[in-house]
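Schema walk-through. Below, the input block comes first and the output block second. Nothing else is stored per chain. Lengths vary across the set, and this one has 150 residues.
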Amino acid sequence: MVHSVFLRSYTLTFLRSYTLMAITSQNQFLRWLPPGIWGIIILVLSLMPGGPGNMNFFGIPYFDKIGHCGMYAVWTFLFFRALSSGPRFSLKRSFWITLIFGTLTGVALEYGQLYLAQGRSFELADMVANTLGAIIGSESGYFYFLRKRK
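--- output ---
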C-alpha cells in the first residue's frame, strides 16, 4: 500500500515536471518565432535581385533608407524580446547582444548584396540605416521591458 502511494506520487511528480518541460520548450520556440520570421524576411529582401536603388516613394528621397532602419528596428526589438524573456540574459546584456548582432547582420548583408545579389549594390548609407535601426530597436526593447519589469 505504501509502495503504491509512493509510486503514484512519484509518477505525478514526473508527469508534472515533464509537462512543464514541454510547455517551456514550446514557449521558447514561440518566443523565437517572430524574430526568426522577421529575420528571414530581411534576408530574402536583402539578397533578392533588385532594381535601381535610391527609391523616391511618396516624394521622399532615399525612402529605402527609412525602410532599412524600420526593418532592423522591428527585428532587433523582437530579438531583444525573445532574448530578454529567457532566464539567462539580463536587460543590459540583451541590449548589447541585440545591438551588436543587428549591426553585424546589417553589415554582412550589405556585403552579401555586393557579392551575391544581382542588380543590388553595396551602399554605406544602407549600413548606417541598418545600424541606426538596430540601435532604435535595442533601445526601445531595453526601455520598454525596463518599465514593464518595474
